[in-house]
Fold these 4 entries.
Entry 1:
Amino acid sequence: MTTTATTALVTNNLPVPSMAALSPLGSLEAYIGAVNRIPVLSVDDEQALARRYRDHEDLDAARELVHSHLRFVVHVARGYNGYGLGIGDLIQEGNIGLMKAVKRFDPDQGVRLVSFAVHWIRAEMHEFILKNWRIVKVATTKAQRKLFFNLRKSKKRLGWMNADEVRAVAADLNVSEREVLEMESRLSGRDIGFDMPDDGDEDGPPSPVAYLAAQGEDPSQLYEREDEEGSQLSVLREGLAELDARSRDIIKRRWLDSEAKVTLQELADEYGVSAERIRQIEANALKKMRALFAA
C-alpha cells in the first residue's frame, strides 16, 4: 500500500490490511487465494462486529469486517482490467475504499456492508484510474468522469463509433453527442512527449514543442492558454446556439459586438417591450450560458 494511503488510514485508527501478512509468499496470486479462503460473515455476525466497532471502537472487530470483504474488492478490481493498470494497485485502492466504508457503516440502516461499501470501493478505484491512466487528464468534471467510465462499457466494438452509435450512447447516458465525440477522441488518443520525439530518435521528426513559435512567453504556457481560449470559444458558440433568436440577438449586440454596446432602451424600442423586460431576457440568457462554462 502507498505511504500516503497508509498514513491517512493509520491516522483514522483503522487497521490496514497487508498483502504480505495475508500471503507470506508475497505474490498477487497468493494474496487472492488467501482472501478467498477468509470466511464470509453471516448477517448476525456482521451486525455484531459493526456495533462493536461503532460503539466501542473495537479495532479487532473492524479488522474482521475488512478482511471478510477483501474478496469482494478483488472482484470489483477485475472489472477494471481493460484500463491497463495493475490489478494489484486497483485492489490496494479498493481496500482503502473498503476501510472508509467500514468506518462510516451504520448497522442500524438495514443494509449489508457489501452494498454500502461498493460505492466507496469504486470511488477510490475511479480516482486512481483517472490520475494514472494518462499523463494528461481525460476527465475533470463530474459529467466527464461519468462519461469516461460508461463510454468504455457502451462501445460494442473497436474503432470509432458511427453516427447511429454516437446518438444511441448520448441518449443512453443523457449527454450531448458533442460530449460523446469529445470523450471518444480523448480515449482514442495517446500521450506524446512534449519536449522529445515520440520514438526518442534524435534524427526523427520534431517534437510538438518545435511547432510553437516563441512570442515572449513559454511555449507550453502559450499552448495551454490558446487551447483554453479555443475551448471557451467552443462553449460560447454552443451556448448561443441553445438560446432563442431574440435572446441570442440581445446577447450578441449587448456583449459581443465590437462596436459600442446597444442600450437596453434601444433594444426595448426595437422589440416593443420595456427596458426591464430586455434586462430580464439578458439576465436569463447569461445565466444559461454561465451554466455551460461551469459544467
Entry 2:
Amino acid sequence: MQVVTIEVPSLGNRCHLVHDGRRALVVDPPRDLALVERAAEAAEVDIAVVADTHVHNDYVSGALGLARRHGADYLLSADERVEFERVGVRDGDEVPVGRLCVEVHATPGHTRHHQAFLVREGMQPAALLTGGSLLHGTVGRTDLVDPRLTRELARQQWRSARSLARLHPATTLHPTHGFGSFCAATSAPTSDPDRPVTLAEQLTANPVLTTPQETFVTGLVSGFGPVPAHYRHMAPLNRTGAGRALPRPARPLTAEAVTDTVLAGGWVVDLRDRSRFAEAHLPGSVSVEAGTQMATYVGWLVPWGAELVLVTDDAAALEPALRDLAAIGIEGVGTHLVDSARLTAAYRRTDWAGYRAALTREPDRPRVVVDVRQHDEWAGGHLPGAVHVPVQDVARHAATLPDGELWVHCRSGYRAAIAASLLHRHGRDVVLLDDAWDRVHELSIPVDGLAA
C-alpha cells in the first residue's frame, strides 16, 4: 500500500491518493482534478473510489467530478443531504479498493456527519485519512456549521479523536486540513509529507489526546480565529455538486471596461508584486499579490457575487490565479493586462528602519500606525499607540480611522499591502510598512503587549 500526498497550498490542504499498485482511493480532492490525475498517472494506477470525509466549508470539492470522469464510486456519509447520487456510507462499513480495505469511522465534530477512512492491506500498518477531525497537533475547528453547535461539536470532536487514538499506534495519520487552512482550530506544526506521522506520536503531542474533555472544549472554542467570508458559501455549493462542472471561463476586458468596473463600485484586483503596486497602479484597484494566499484573501474581502476583474502585466500569472479562485467557487471573472501609462496612482513604501528614521526626523508629524494582523498576533505584542484593525475589517473602518498619515503593517507585508491599497482606495494617505515584524525587535523599536 502506498499513500501519495498531494499538496494544495492555495487551500492550505492536502489530498491523498492511496493505492495497491493498480487501483486507488482518492480522499478529499480539490476542484483542480489535474493535480490528482497527474499523481495517479505517475503512480500508474486507476482511480477506483473517491471519497469526501465531509461536506467541505473551505473549498469546492472535486470529488463528484473526479468520480464521474473515472467511473468511480463516490463515498460520502449517508446522512449528508446532497442533491446528487453518491454511495452513502456509515460507521463500520467496509469498501474494497483492489487489495485494499477501506473502513469507515464516524468522526463527528468538524461537521455533524464527518467520517474518517482507515485503509488496510493485509498485515501492513494502516493509513488513517482523517479530513478535519484528528490533525497533526490539533483538530479541525467546530464553529463552521452553526455557532449554536460549536461547543457540542467540540465535545464530539474530542470523543472522535479519542476513538481514533485507540487504533494501532503504528497507524499513519493523513489529515486534509492543518497546513494553512482556516478549517484547522490552531496552526499545526509543519510536517514533511514524505515522513508519515503516526498515531503514537499524537498520543503525547496533540492536546485533544492529553487534555480532559471540558478543559479541552473551553480552550478550543475560545481560541478560534476569524472565518473567511467565502466559507459560508462553500457547503451549499458542495451540496449541489457544483465542482462537477468546469469553471466558467474568464472574460478579457478593455481598459475602458476596467475603469467602468471601478466607477461602478466593482473590484479590480492587481496581482503584481506589492512593491510594484505601491510604485504605480490603476486608481481604485486593490493589491492582492499572486501566490498561495491570493484566493483566500480575494474570497474573504470581495463581496460574494461582486464584479471582479484581475489585472496584471504578466499573462502567465492569470491561469494559476483563475484556477485558485475557481477552487473556491469564484469564476467567470474579468481579466486585463495593464498598460503602464494608465498606472497613475501610487503611495509610499518603506521598512521598519524607515519607520524609525521617520520618527527621529519628524517626531511631531501626525502619523497613525495601523496594525492589520489578527487578534492573537496583536495580543502577542504591538506598537504603542497603534490602531488595531484586522485586514478583513479595514475597508469597513477606513473612514473612521484617525486623521493623519496611516502607516500600515502586518507580520510580513502581504496583508499590509492589501490593507494599504484598500485604505488608499478610500482616499486615505498611506505608507506601506513592507517588512517582517521580527525586525521591530531587532531594531529595538518599543513594543507593548505580552511579547515582542
Entry 3:
Amino acid sequence: MNLLSIGASYRTADVAVLERLVIPESSVPDLLQRLVAQPYVGEAVVVSTCNRVEVYAAVSGFHGGLGDICNVLSEHSGIPATELAGHLYVHYGEAAVRHSFRVSSGLDSMVVGEAQILGQLRDAYHAATEVDSAGRLLHELMQQTLRVGKRAHAETGIDKAGQSVVTAALDVAAEHLGGDLTGRSALIIGAGAMGSLSVATLTRSGVGPLRITNRSHERADRLAEAYGAVAIPFDQLDEALREVDIVVCATASTEPVLTRERLERVGKDLVVLDLAVPRDVAPDAVGLPGLTVVDIDSLANSRRTGPAAAETAAVEQIVVAEVDNFLGWLRGAEIAPTVAALRTRAEEVVSAEMRKLVSRRPEFTDEQRADVSRTLHRVVQQLLHSPTVRVRQLAAEPGGDQYAALLRELFDLDVPLATQADAVPEIGGKA
C-alpha cells in the first residue's frame, strides 16, 4: 500500500464548492466506510474544516485509488467528477507525507501558523479509529503528523501571534469599523468549536458586550458563563441582530441561518463574519445596503499577514527532517515482509531436512530428534541474525528498497508487494 492524499481547500476552490464538499461530523463514519469499501482503498482518514476537505488514504494503486476517492467525493457532493477534478490537489507517496506534515504545522493554513488544525486532525484521526478505517500505515502517519505539528508550534514562533481564521476575520471587520473594535457589541451564532474560539478571540480583542445564541440554549449558556457573556434564546435572534455591531456565524447548519428577509429587518449597518461552511449568510443577502459580509472567500483574498519568513523557514526545516524520518520508517516497514519470508524459508528448509533425517535414521529417539532439531534451528537463526538486522538498517536509508528486492531475488522469495509503491511518479497538486 502507498499513501495518497486528495483534497480541496481555499487555495483551489471557492466557498460555493467547499460547502458542497463539506462533510458533517455525523456523516464522517459513513463516508469512511464507503471509502474503504472501494477496490483500491485499504485505509482512510477524512479531514473536513471550514476551509478544507481532505482524504488521506492507503491505496494499492495510484490511478485506481485516485478514481475511487474522486468518485466517492463526487457522489457525496453532487459535483460531477470531471468538474470536481479541477478543484482537487493530489499528493502521492513522499509528497503525501510532506503535505500532511505541512498541514499540521500550520504552513498550509489560510492563516499561516494557526493551531486549530491540530485539533481538527486529531478529531479526524479519532473518527477513523472508531470505525476502524485507519490501518498500520495511516495510524503511523497520523500519529507522526500530530507530533510534527506539536513540535513545529513548540519549537518555533510560527503561532506566537495567536493568529486564527477568527483573528483574520476581525482584522477585516476592523477595516470596516474605523480600525478599533474595542467596545463594539457582538453576537456569536453557534456554540461549537468555532463558536468557542470566536468568543475567546473576541474577548481577548476587547470586543464587547458579547451575546451568544445557539439552537441548543444549554450549550450557549455554558459558553456564555465561561466568558462572562450573555446567552440569548435562538428565537430572539432577530432582536439580537438589531442590537449589535458585529455578528460571527459559526453554525453547522446545512441551510442559511441569516436569510435575506431576516437581514433586511435589521435596519442598521452590520458587519457579519461568516465562518461557517456551508455558509450561514444566504448568498442573495450579500450586497444589501449597510451589510458587510466577510466569508472564507474574502478571507482567502485578503492575504492576512502571517509569521516572519524566518519562522516559516524554521518550520519547513522541521518538516523536511521529519519527512526523511518517516520515509526511513516506511522503508523499514516495507522490508519486514521480505525478512519474514526469508526466515520462513529457512524454517521450511530445516523442517524438510529433519524429515529426511528421521526417515534415514529411524532408530533416533524422540529426545535425540528434538536435540538435532533445536541445534539446526539455532544455527539457522544465528546465521540469519546479523544479515537481517543489517538489512533493516540499510533499508531505512535512501534507496533502501533495493535491499528487499535483492533478498527476494537471491532467495527466490515470494513476497506480496502490497507495501511497495506502484510505478507512478510522485505527484504534487495545486496546493
Entry 4:
Amino acid sequence: MGTSLQVVEQLSPGRNVDAYVQTVSAIPILTADEERELAERLHYQSDLEAARQLVMSHLRFVVHIARSYSGYGLPLGDLIQEGNVGLMKAVKRFDPTMGVRLVSFAVHWIKAEMHEFILRNWRIVKIATTKAQRKLFFNLRSQKKKLSWMTNEEVEAVAEDLGVDAKVVRQMEGRLASNDTAFDAPASEDEDAAYLSPSAYLEDHSADPATQLEEANWEEDSQRRLLSAMEGLDDRSRNILARRWLAEEKATLHELAAEYEVSAERIRQLEKNAMKKIRGAMLTA
C-alpha cells in the first residue's frame, strides 16, 4: 500500500480543501467489473497499481463521509486525511470473493478512523483558548466561592476586579459549569439518554453514503446511455427530442411543425417513434 499512501499524501487536502475536492471528484468512478478485476489483482497478485486505482477512485467517497461530521467543528481537511487512512486499510483487507462493493466494505473502516480522530481532538466546551481567557479562567475559579450561579452583583464585582466585561465573566462561568460529552453514551444509561450522545445526532443518518454514491453512479450511467441512444437517431428526430425535452425553453409541436413544414401531428409521431427507439437502445445497452 506504499504507492497508494504516497499518492494520497500528494493529494492531501492541506489548506486548500476546495481544490482537493475538485481534484478527487474528477477521478472516474470504477464500474463493478473494473473494481472486481482490480480487487482480484490486489488480492491474488499483491498488485500495488491495482491498490492505487482502488484508493484513488474512492477518495470522493471519503469526502462525502467527512462532510457528515462537520458538526464537530473540526477541520474538514483533517477529517478527510483520517478517512483516507481508513480507506487504505479497507482496500488492503478487501476480499473480492465476498460479493460486495468496496464502498460498502470501506465505509466502516473510514468511519472508524474518523471516530478515533474526533475522540482525540474534540470537546463540546473549549475552555480558555486564548491567553486572556486562561487568565480569566484561573482568576474566576479562585474567586468563585460557591457552586451555584453567581448573582449580578457578584458578576459585576468579579468583572471590575479583573478589568473585563460582565458578559465575558458570564460566558466563562458557563464554560466552567459545562462538561465534556462522550462520543458514545455509556452502556449503563437508559435508552432515551443514549440519543443525547453526539454519535446519535451529529452524523447525518438521513442518507447512506454508499446508497448516494450508487445512485450517482446510476444517474451518470443513465445519462451516458441516453446520449449514446440519441446518437443513433436521424438529425431531425434528434433535434425534435432535444428541443421538446432537453432545452430550457421547450418548443411546442406547432413551432416545430412550422419549422419543418409538416403538420403538428407528424411532429408528434416523429417524437413518439424517436422515444420508442431510445428506450429500446437504452434497454439493450
